[in-house]
Amino acid sequence: MDSWWALLSLSLLLRTSGFQAANASKPNILLIMADDLGIGDLGCYGNNTLRTPNIDRLAEEGVRLTQHLAAAPLCTPSRSSFLTGRHSFRSGMEAHDGYRALQWNGGSGGLPENETTFARILQQQGYATGLIGKWHQGVNCESRTDHCHHPLNHGFDYFYGMPFTLVNDCDPGRPPEVDASTRARLWFYTQVAALGVLTVALGKICGLISVPWKAVLGAASLVFLFFVSWYASFGFVRRWNCILMRNHDVTEQPMVLERTARLMLQEAVSYIERNKHGPFLLFVSLLHVHIPLVTTKQFLGKSQHGLYGDNVEEMDWLVGEILQAIEENGLKNTTFAYFTSDHGGHLEARDERGQLGGWNGIFRGGKGMGGWEGGIRVPGIFRWPGVLPAGRVIHEPTSLMDVFPTVVELGGGHVPQDRVIDGRSLVPLLQGTAEHSAHEFLFHYCGKYLHAARWHEKDSGRLWKVHYMTPRFHPKGAGACHGQGVCPCSGDGVTQHSPPLLFDLSRDPSETRPLSPGSEPRYHAVLARVHEALEQHRRTLSPVPPQFSLGNIVWKPWLQPCCGTFPLCACTQDGDPSEA
């Protein structure tokens, strides 16, 4: 027995020593985030019909988390939490009602300048810091060139990609997506007003009514001005939102979707080659697999799951090419690599051909749902050969917010002490020196509304989940809110539960069997303990300026990024004037 304990102690000592030695040399850090990918879309998470060999190999060579959780179920707030290690509402990147994500490059909302990203801290530690791909954290505040929310103002020294996000409007052949319901209402009001003016004019011509022509022309002018006021933004969504930037310059407006994946890959590989003498941080924020699912001919029609499956398999290929660039430059053993998604798959994304969103495996719900597991449970794969044990699987609850303190620690920095940091370093858990996650409680928000909370009772191994609100699926019996973009967070679209719903995820991960006092003897004690933790959590909250207010969300022409002279914004790659 004494020999066994000696061997165990020596093993832990060697592992810790190896980690400290590797940490002392500051590893390169490669973070890859997919967009709208369902956890059930990957082979290493149980999918046997989609081909994802490169991501699966990453999991085989590293550590795979099975209970990795997004801090928010939509793009903008989830990514702000990822970048800062803080719930998005702490920086105003959430909403009470209405808009839950940024809608325009020309809006004034975005990640506040006083927020600290992991890129900023690593930059101060001597890292080259690059972002390739999607940003979706805002661009400007007061002028077209102030770039207050821009990646280069948040710690990245190089940026190439979309300051916004892919939307259907980026593809001329797709139906509108950005604020489509508002756009439809405005078009309806314009038609009604125009019809009214036309009716009055015809009545005047026929002598049926006596109205001065000045009044008719004045009304017609008002209708025209009303039309121009909204069509200037909604009529040109592709030109305003679907653009590419390199650092502070717009390089393509509107972007050509068919070549975007190739450009992103070239940029990522080039960044690795330029900075191979390191250390570097590279955040590859993929545009895959967000609708409109732009897929190159090489992958079209090759999967078993239509256009979405094709896009997933192309995404896996892109990940493989980036990992190959790491290996070809001799950086595999000195690079801490990570793969995840910003939230769950988009269940409501459909067209006449079928499903366009991801599969969330056995988990209930999807994108936009802050409480159900399918909206927030995401892949979590880490690889660092020689430091992290290959093939290890961890079932502890972790968060995307944990990446912030983790990479800060690896880079030799320190997390800010002047604010609440919700993330916890994963280093002890990943290297095996800690048995349990540092999170006893996690709180799950939809917008600014608390929908659920979980309690990891470490002594017993039980994992309790309490739901205070759940979305009302449509049609009844469905697993999503079909007919809407995503499920709402509040109002008539949710059910408030009193008493709350209680699940034991350790025995019911699909959340299909709510517990009751009759089925769970500790029912009341569990609810009381979670409520106590919730009250402590609420004492950490404080009001901040809302970034998703109507004043910040609306399109402002003086803030619109533009190559050329506004409003004649048009250029091809690297700012060349567009022939169009």
Brief characterization of the structure:
This protein has 580 residues and is an alpha/beta fold.
Core attributes:
single chain, 580 residues, alpha/beta, 11-stranded mixed beta sheet, 4-stranded antiparallel beta sheet, 18% strand, disordered N terminus, calcium, transmembrane helix, Alkaline_phosphatase_core_sf, hydrolase
Could you please describe the fold and organization of this structure?
- It comes from Felis catus.
- Strands 1, 2, 3, 4, 5, 6, 7, 8, 11, 12 and 13 form an eleven-stranded mixed sheet that branches. Strands 14-15-16-17 form a four-stranded antiparallel sheet, with helices on one face. The chain has a two-stranded antiparallel sheet with strand order 9-10.
- The longest helix is centred in the first third of the chain and has 26 residues, at 180-205.
- The protein is an alpha/beta fold and 580 residues long.
- It is built from 14 helices and 19 strands.
- The chain is 31% helix and 18% strand.
- The relative contact order is 0.18.
- The model is unreliable at 1-23 (pLDDT under 50).
